[in-house]
Amino acid sequence: MSEKINNIIQDLKSLTLLEAAELVKQIEEVFDVDASAVSNAGMMVMSNDASIGATSESNEEKTEFDVFLEEVPSAKKIAVLKIVRSLTSLGLKEAKELVESVPKLIKESTSKEEAEDIKGKLEEAGAKVSIK
Protein backbone atom coordinates (compact mmCIF):
# COMPACT_ATOMS: atom_id res chain seq x y z
CA MET A 1 0.00 0.00 0.00
CA SER A 2 1.05 3.57 -0.50
CA GLU A 3 2.19 5.74 2.38
CA LYS A 4 -0.93 7.90 2.02
CA ILE A 5 -3.25 4.88 2.45
CA ASN A 6 -1.22 3.57 5.40
CA ASN A 7 -1.57 6.96 7.12
CA ILE A 8 -5.34 6.99 6.55
CA ILE A 9 -5.67 3.47 7.97
CA GLN A 10 -3.65 4.43 11.05
CA ASP A 11 -5.88 7.48 11.56
CA LEU A 12 -9.00 5.32 11.24
CA LYS A 13 -7.71 2.87 13.84
CA SER A 14 -7.47 5.67 16.38
CA LEU A 15 -11.12 6.78 16.03
CA THR A 16 -13.63 6.18 18.79
CA LEU A 17 -16.94 4.51 17.91
CA LEU A 18 -18.76 7.81 17.87
CA GLU A 19 -16.10 9.42 15.68
CA ALA A 20 -16.30 6.49 13.27
CA ALA A 21 -20.10 6.81 13.11
CA GLU A 22 -19.75 10.54 12.39
CA LEU A 23 -17.19 9.74 9.66
CA VAL A 24 -19.63 7.33 8.01
CA LYS A 25 -22.37 9.98 8.10
CA GLN A 26 -20.05 12.56 6.54
CA ILE A 27 -18.94 10.15 3.80
CA GLU A 28 -22.56 9.30 3.03
CA GLU A 29 -23.44 13.01 2.74
CA VAL A 30 -20.37 14.11 0.76
CA PHE A 31 -20.37 11.23 -1.73
CA ASP A 32 -24.16 10.70 -1.76
CA VAL A 33 -23.92 6.99 -0.87
CA ASP A 34 -25.62 4.71 1.64
CA ALA A 35 -23.17 2.57 3.62
CA SER A 36 -25.88 0.23 4.90
CA ALA A 37 -27.04 -0.59 1.37
CA VAL A 38 -23.50 -1.50 0.33
CA SER A 39 -22.97 -3.94 3.19
CA ASN A 40 -26.31 -5.65 2.57
CA ALA A 41 -25.63 -5.98 -1.16
CA GLY A 42 -22.30 -7.66 -0.45
CA MET A 43 -24.05 -10.26 1.66
CA MET A 44 -26.52 -11.08 -1.10
CA VAL A 45 -23.79 -11.66 -3.69
CA MET A 46 -21.99 -14.32 -1.61
CA SER A 47 -21.42 -17.46 -3.65
CA ASN A 48 -21.68 -21.06 -2.46
CA ASP A 49 -17.87 -21.37 -2.37
CA ALA A 50 -17.63 -18.46 0.06
CA SER A 51 -20.32 -19.87 2.32
CA ILE A 52 -18.53 -23.23 2.47
CA GLY A 53 -15.37 -21.45 3.65
CA ALA A 54 -17.37 -19.61 6.29
CA THR A 55 -18.83 -22.87 7.59
CA SER A 56 -15.44 -24.51 8.05
CA GLU A 57 -14.15 -21.34 9.68
CA SER A 58 -16.99 -21.40 12.23
CA ASN A 59 -15.82 -24.83 13.40
CA GLU A 60 -12.59 -23.23 14.63
CA GLU A 61 -12.64 -21.67 18.07
CA LYS A 62 -13.38 -17.97 17.95
CA THR A 63 -10.73 -15.83 19.64
CA GLU A 64 -12.08 -12.30 19.15
CA PHE A 65 -15.45 -11.15 20.39
CA ASP A 66 -17.56 -8.01 20.04
CA VAL A 67 -19.61 -6.75 22.99
CA PHE A 68 -22.94 -5.08 22.15
CA LEU A 69 -25.09 -3.00 24.48
CA GLU A 70 -28.59 -4.16 23.54
CA GLU A 71 -30.94 -2.51 26.02
CA VAL A 72 -30.74 -0.04 28.91
CA PRO A 73 -33.74 0.46 31.22
CA SER A 74 -34.30 4.16 31.84
CA ALA A 75 -34.06 3.68 35.61
CA LYS A 76 -30.57 2.13 35.23
CA LYS A 77 -29.23 4.57 32.60
CA ILE A 78 -26.90 6.51 34.92
CA ALA A 79 -25.28 3.37 36.37
CA VAL A 80 -24.78 1.91 32.89
CA LEU A 81 -23.44 5.26 31.65
CA LYS A 82 -20.74 5.22 34.34
CA ILE A 83 -19.68 1.69 33.38
CA VAL A 84 -19.62 2.56 29.65
CA ARG A 85 -17.43 5.60 30.36
CA SER A 86 -14.97 3.51 32.38
CA LEU A 87 -14.80 0.81 29.69
CA THR A 88 -14.50 3.05 26.64
CA SER A 89 -12.85 6.22 27.97
CA LEU A 90 -15.54 8.24 26.18
CA GLY A 91 -16.55 11.66 27.42
CA LEU A 92 -19.85 12.17 29.21
CA LYS A 93 -21.69 13.44 26.14
CA GLU A 94 -20.41 10.65 23.84
CA ALA A 95 -21.15 7.93 26.39
CA LYS A 96 -24.66 9.33 26.96
CA GLU A 97 -25.34 9.32 23.21
CA LEU A 98 -24.08 5.75 22.96
CA VAL A 99 -26.23 4.54 25.86
CA GLU A 100 -29.32 6.30 24.50
CA SER A 101 -28.94 4.89 20.99
CA VAL A 102 -28.80 1.16 21.74
CA PRO A 103 -28.15 -1.39 20.31
CA LYS A 104 -24.52 -0.29 19.98
CA LEU A 105 -21.09 -1.88 19.83
CA ILE A 106 -19.22 -1.22 23.09
CA LYS A 107 -15.98 -3.15 22.60
CA GLU A 108 -14.65 -4.71 19.39
CA SER A 109 -12.28 -7.65 18.85
CA THR A 110 -11.67 -8.40 22.50
CA SER A 111 -10.75 -11.66 24.25
CA LYS A 112 -13.45 -13.97 25.58
CA GLU A 113 -12.44 -13.26 29.18
CA GLU A 114 -12.55 -9.50 28.73
CA ALA A 115 -15.87 -9.73 26.86
CA GLU A 116 -17.38 -11.78 29.70
CA ASP A 117 -16.02 -9.31 32.26
CA ILE A 118 -17.53 -6.35 30.39
CA LYS A 119 -20.84 -8.18 30.03
CA GLY A 120 -20.89 -8.96 33.76
CA LYS A 121 -20.24 -5.34 34.74
CA LEU A 122 -22.91 -3.97 32.42
CA GLU A 123 -25.51 -6.58 33.39
CA GLU A 124 -24.80 -5.91 37.06
CA ALA A 125 -25.61 -2.24 36.36
CA GLY A 126 -28.90 -3.30 34.73
CA ALA A 127 -28.13 -3.38 31.02
CA LYS A 128 -28.88 -6.15 28.53
CA VAL A 129 -25.65 -7.16 26.73
CA SER A 130 -24.75 -9.63 23.99
CA ILE A 131 -21.42 -11.03 22.86
CA LYS A 132 -20.93 -11.93 19.22
Automatic annotation (TrEMBL):
Q: Which residues form the Large ribosomal subunit protein bL12 C-terminal domain?
A: 65-132
Keywords (alphabetical) are: Plastid, Ribonucleoprotein, Ribosomal protein
Sequence ranges assigned to domain Large ribosomal subunit protein bL12 oligomerization in this UniProt record: 4-46
User: What GO cellular-component annotations does this UniProt entry give?
Assistant: cytosolic large ribosomal subunit
Q: Name one GO biological process term.
A: translation
* One Pfam family from the record: Ribosomal_L12_N
Gene3D superfamilies for this protein: 3.30.1390.10, Single helix bin
What GO terms are given for molecular function? mRNA binding; structural constituent of ribosome
Q: Which InterPro entries match?
A: Ribosomal_bL12, Ribosomal_bL12_C, Ribosomal_bL12_C/ClpS-like, Ribosomal_bL12_oligo, Ribosomal_bL12_oligo_N_sf
Which family is this sequence assigned to?
Belongs to the bacterial ribosomal protein bL12 family.
Which HAMAP family does the record match to this protein?
Ribosomal_bL12
The protein in question is named 50S ribosomal protein L12, chloroplastic
Q: Which gene encodes it?
A: rpl12
